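User: I would dearly like some help making sense of a protein record. I have put the entry right below:
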Amino acid sequence: MSPSRKLFGRAIHALARISDEFWLDPSEKGLALRSMNSSRSAYACVFFPPIFFQMYHSTTIPEGCEKYIPLHLKYKLGIKSVLPIFRSLNTLERNVEKCSIFISDNNCRVVFQLFCKHGM
């Protein structure tokens, strides 16, 4: 596992200590993960610049359109739905070759796709 995937997993773990939910905030400058606790007394933001990723796009191409349109959306995710993906960083380090994160416009979903070593 590259240091970037492990660092991303550690960021998810850190946000889980703050709140039960977090915001995924893509922009041209990079990807921000933000979290605030229920009493609004603690706030955390982890920012990943585009160079952190092998490939980063903060734009989308709608159907029937030929040019990129910037995304200006923030996605609220439950930490309990994302944390199991990054639960054991050591297991991920041994078995996962790459992780792809994308937003499915059709289903209004954020997808974390893990590609395991040896095609498994």
